[in-house]
Design goal:
With 84 residues, the chain is mainly alpha-helical. Helices cover 44% and strands 0% of the residues. It is elongated, with a radius of gyration of 17 Å. Bound molecules: zinc ion. The site of zinc ion has 8 residues, from helix 3.
Amino acid sequence: MNAMERMQRRIFRDQKKQERLLKKYGKPRHYAGRCEECGCKEPNPVQYIDESNISITYNSPYLCRDCYIKKYGAYPHRKARLAR
Ligand SMILES: [Zn+2]
């Protein structure tokens, strides 16, 4: 196998990986209507968004603003993307 073939194979593998990740994490996690830290009712939760890692975003808890600030030490810049 020459270098060109190896490169093409790697690109193909990466694409497959991305597709798998999108399938798994493309839709937001279900939100039960309560902050996942303190349990208060929160109709507009916020969630940590990691632009480079979709699985981190997916698994980040839905939080009320107070809990978000406590957890991440910063004000959320975006509302959580919720499953409808
Ligand atoms: Zn909370």
